[in-house]
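For this section, I looked closely at a protein sequence along with its fold in token form, which I now present.
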Amino acid sequence: MSGLKTAVFWRVFQVDVRLENGSLLASIRDDGCGFPLKSLKYCSGIGILGMRERAEMLRGTLDIDSSVGQGTRLTLSLPLESRVDEPASC
């Protein structure tokens, strides 16, 4: 419910999905109020942490770019070819 409370005042205004150098890149950008990235260190929720863990399980990355008053962009990069027999690094 807290996610809904904070999500009421933004809207997604750009979604980009493309293939580049053997990876799938997906970027989602909103026009919300943004936040200082250093505040992620003190975040008690599991939303962003969970998204990053899921990306890493697929040998990918999740990058976050945000600043107060400028909205937020999430960029997911997933390699299209990976070896299933190798465990993902922690």
Notes: DSSP finds two helices and four strands in the chain. Residues 1-5 have pLDDT under 50 and may be disordered. The radius of gyration is 15 Å. The helical segments are 2-7, 47-57.
